[in-house]
Specification:
Blueprint lengths: L1 H19 E4 L12 E5 L6 H9 L4 E6 L6 H9 L3 E3 L6 H12 L3 E4 L17 H9 L2 E8 L4 H6 L4 E7 L4 E2 L8 H16 L21 E2 L20
Parallel strand pairs: 1-7, 2-5, 2-6, 3-4, 3-5
Antiparallel strand pairs: 6-7, 8-9
């Protein structure tokens, strides 16, 4: 019964967004049908979660969201229906971490927005390192997804104007610590390497904190044979740092 409810709600929300959004979502076909997989995406405003969930349905996707979101009756209903994992920000939430590992162990897709909060203007903020520990512990592949163009959605909605919503799906990769201790510096470098892969999917004006792709390193990233590094896909990329 719950599966039928998810199907009806997801299709209804997808139809609603199609009325007010000009969707550019052809690249979502690149996302595997199941996990274990970690989707890393940027966070512009509150519409990305329902858009991604409904457009990837019926893939078994889970996500993380701040626990305060459940105070809103609509998001409480949707996030409970979609089995989103609540997380307490500003602390080491072991319960959210363990639930995320369990979801990945079941073969689910876990969606994470490492910025931790909405940028509102679409420009990337500095990423938080939580995704690093999840990726290393679960050994799940990371799949970056960049979204842009919809930063004015709410203003456009009030004017009954449709908003473009572009989705770019990058190439997957995994993390390899090379046996090193996960010091703060190592975790921060891993996080930066993930975020630069995400930034490379966005137009230059949206890259924000990671706008200078020449500063990107790839020390801890591993791509499968024949799979291109996302940095090589950015046509405007300057020469990489040595």
């Amino acid at each position: 019964m719950r599966d039928l409810e998810r199907k009806i709600v997801s299709r209804t929300i997808r139809w609603f967004f199609r009325l007010f959004i000009q969707m550019d979502d052809e690249e979502l076909v690149k996302v595997p049908r199941s996990g274990p997989l970690i989707i890393v995406a940027n966070h512009v405003n509150s519409i990305e979660v329902p858009v991604i969930f409904t457009h990837l349905y019926p893939r078994p996707i889970r996500g993380l969201a701040k626990i305060e979101t459940w105070d809103n009756w609509l998001f409480n209903y949707l996030f409970t229906l979609w089995q989103v994992i609540p997380i307490r920000r500003g602390e080491a939430d072991l319960n959210a971490f363990n639930l995320s590992l369990q979801a990945l162990a079941r073969g689910d897709i876990l969606g994470i927005m490492p910025e931790g909060t909405r940028s509102r203007d679409g420009r990337l903020k500095k990423g938080l390192p939580g995704v690093v520990l999840l990726a290393l512990r679960s050994k799940a592949v990371i799949h970056p997804i960049g979204m842009y163009g919809h930063e004015s959605f709410w203003q456009n909605l009030r004017r009954f104007k449709r908003t473009p919503f572009h989705i770019r799906v990058g190439n997957p990769f995994s993390l390899d610590a090379h046996g090193q201790s996960l010091t703060r510096e190592v975790r921060e470098q891993m996080t930066a390497e993930i975020m630069y892969q995400l930034a490379a999917l966005l137009p230059p004006a949206y890259r924000g904190y990671y706008s200078d792709l020449s500063r990107a390193t790839e020390t801890y990233l591993r791509f499968a044979p024949g799979v291109a590094n996302n940095l090589t896909l950015a046509s405007d990329r300057p020469n990489p740092a040595p």
